Amino acid sequence: MIEGIAQIGEILMAGDQSRYLDFLVKDLKAEVKNKKQHVAIMDFSSTGDQLKFYEEEIDDQTAHKYLWIGNAKGSDTQKRLSSDNLSYLVSQSISSLKDELNEDWELWKKLDCIINNYFLDLGDIPGQQRRYRYVLDIVKCGINTEMNLYQQREMVQNEDISAKDVAQIVSDETQKYIESQRQLGDSEIGLYTVFLDGENLAQSTDYKNFLMQENLLPDFDDTYQAKCFVCHNESNLSYDVAKLKFKYYIKDKISFSSRFEKDFSKNFSFCKPCYMYLSAGENFIQNKMKTAMGRFQVYVIPKFLFNVKMSSEDIDGFGDYVIFSFNAAKNFKGMNKFNGLLQSYLKYQESYKNSYTLNFLFYQENNSEFRILRCVKDVNPIRLRTLTKTTNDIGIIGKKLLRESNSWNIDLGKIYFLTPIRISKGAPKAYKDLLVLYSNILSGGEVSYYSMIRQFTELIRIYKFEKFSIFNINTEGNPLWEMSMAVMECNLFMLYLRKLELLKGGKYMSEVDLKSIGLDDDRMQEFVTEMGYDDTRTAMFLMGNLIREIGYRQGGKEPILEKLNYQGIDARRLLRLTNEIFEKLKQYKVLKYNKSIFSAFKRLLDLYINDWPLDDQENVFYILSGYSYRRQRAKGESVNETEEEQEEYDPQ
């Protein structure tokens, strides 16, 4: 994966290290929630008597023009001249950047001019609060002439208020001023930046050199020479990965070091060019190769198997192609969109065929913490086309067996909502099994049939007992109806795994002939055949059909469902449930319409009940599969019902 990131960075930079900063620039959106976005410019005058605010609409060149590379991470002191957070620019950024520069630099002199003429010194402040020592003097600048900042300074010195609080007050007042003077609300500003006498300071040579040397590149030890982990050339190396965006190991924990000796030089060590390639490649991936599955964030990272001739413009289009092809496998709507744009992507599909593999990096990011959840490595891109085709095939089968609905298209996105995981504060918890499942689907690993059954029965319990608040499962309608949809999707998901030849375990070999056991229903025959049900699964499926018939007569929450134990049903309970079903069919006077189903069910049950092969949870799943089939089968379609009077059948 690391090699793939560096390959992308090398293509982008084309060997020109001076372009390094250009490829660290972060994307800016020109529109957010139907509101045009702007850059708010703070233009100071070197005469010390005028601060002007004006704005520009954001376009595709804005981020480069103002060198927007993101804020410093976490609790680090902010030293950027362009930021999406106004409070940084009216407090810590300008003074902290000045402190890092040499006094003979032109940028130091310009920042010193701004600090001396437009900022208020709150006095000596200890510890972390020291970064807020200088704040924009909003009284002198005419932003709020009624505020007594000198009183605020005294309160800071007396520790009645923190310097950070004063900085926030100054930021809020400045934001109000911008809104009143420029008619721009906070939601319409995507970036703030600093000018002096009309000069864009973010483009100054001194600022670029500072970013290169101090903020973005680590120290390279002239005394430490070894082979670079990426290019394998002998060179001066650095093993400091703290400034890279993807944390390849944690440098402050001894357990990550070689032989637990706090020696990180044997982990990942990079030469200067490869470090720059990695950093540029990471930024490209963050901007272009980011997607999501359910609530998981995913980076799709190509790795080229051999040298390919590709320009920086080519890699941009190639990135779009890779993401679109993944989205086609991830989401049925994405598949339709991809098919519509396929002609424009044929160049990449043909030119780079068999020349790369894909890595899928599942991660969580929270402030300064970047946590890798799982990495699926070296996936052949042909696999995505296989998944997309299988999704399409399953959707066609679902519509044929049930009714018209896009719900039957089983894709990677749908699988997220068929795999229960707990949610806390909007984020997935206990997600290991789901990521293993995704990994196996993407890479062709085996998936346990029995783990799927247990997953599906847990999903059923969430719907039945309405435990939606703590799981990744949502409902907006009748939980029983949506449960029946989910159970049918689970059956189709099992078929999806079988068609991909991933499912391990379970018996899907025998073919049940419903006509031979007295049930003449071609569509039901087609369903149990397509799903690969054997005799015992078919028996449970037919029992579920009968339970739905009774539930329909009962209405509401269908009290017959309370006869089921959703944790599992053993063979003895199946016999008791059979008698209860028979009595209810008689009670509601519908046995005559369901005699053939009941007879077929009872015949199969009697054949195997003394040595019943299904476990307790399989029984629950296949009973509710029959129940759900009867609910989800297209309206107006009969389920072997007849208007003719028939003699009542005694199951004893």
SSE layout and pairing:
Blueprint: H1 2-13, E1 31-32, E2 35-36, E3 38-44, E4 51-57, H2 62-65, E5 82-83, H3 86-89, H4 92-100, H5 106-118, E6 119-121, E7 134-136, H6 149-157, H7 163-182, E8 189-196, E9 199-200, H8 205-216, E10 225-227, E11 234-236, H9 272-288, E12 290-293, E13 296-304, H10 312-330, H11 332-351, E14 356-366, E15 369-379, H12 382-401, H13 412-416, E16 422-424, E17 427-429, H14 432-443, E18 447-448, H15 449-464, H16 479-499, E19 503-504, H17 522-530, H18 535-554, H19 571-587, H20 595-608, H21 616-632
Parallel strand pairs: 3-8, 18-19
Antiparallel strand pairs: 1-2, 3-4, 5-8, 6-7, 8-9, 10-11, 12-13, 13-14, 14-15, 16-17
Helix pairs in contact: 1-9, 4-5, 10-11, 10-12, 12-16, 15-16, 15-21, 16-21, 18-19, 18-20, 18-21
